[in-house]
Amino acid sequence: MSKSCKGLAMELVKCLSESDCVKVEKRSYKDCAGEKCPSISSECVGLRETYFNCKRGQVDMRARIRGNKGY
């Protein structure tokens, strides 16, 4: 279960590394992923929401019994 969000994390890092927030503004990945920055594409915002929901599912007791959804 600890690896069920790994694919999403890699896609999010790839998407953020191609965004203007990291390239032009030279900000860290954490800063760009943590806030609603206008220089992040809508694809990255969607990946961020999905990744956060995946991580939340890892600590949810109901999801721990059934298993987290793999993406």
From TrEMBL:
Transmembrane segments: none annotated. Keywords: Disulfide bond. The keyword Disulfide bond applies. One of its GO terms (biological process) is mitochondrial respiratory chain complex IV assembly. It comes from the Eukaryota. InterPro entries: Cyt_c_oxidase_assmbl_Pet191. GO terms for cellular component: mitochondrion. Belongs to the PET191 family. This is Cytochrome c oxidase assembly factor 5. It comes from Kingdonia uniflora.
